[in-house]
Predict the 3D structure of the following.
Amino acid sequence: MIVRLLLGLALAVVLFVGYLFAMLHWNYSEGERAGWVQKLSKKGWICKTWEGELALVSLPGSTVEKFPFTVRDDAVAAQIMQVMGKRVTLHYEEKVGLPTSCFGETRHFVTGVTLSSDIPLAPGVTIPSPPEPAASPAR
């Protein structure tokens, strides 16, 4: 009787771990979103993850849509912090079925960031980003 109970419990644990492994390594979707990162902070009581918001603007003067995202890799979070306030493209993977917020508060997990140099307004019409300020000579 006890052996059956222990085997059943062990089987349930193995199935749960297998489910978590499958959900963490399988993507429902993946893609890219472009905009300006306006918030990035490390949150959580026990499991700390980086949580952020990307402001998506399709046309100047239009309503801003926010794209909430999670970053699990500290190196990617550091890259995002370096380009904060500039227009970027975030590569993300959408994961569904994760049972707790310990893995992240959103379904969108950012895995990479690319700095975008031009702001497209319409097909063939772009406004180039301002150049980086030149370093002043040392005295």
Summary: The chain has one domain: 28-128. The longest strand covers residues 29-43. The chain has a mean pLDDT of 82.
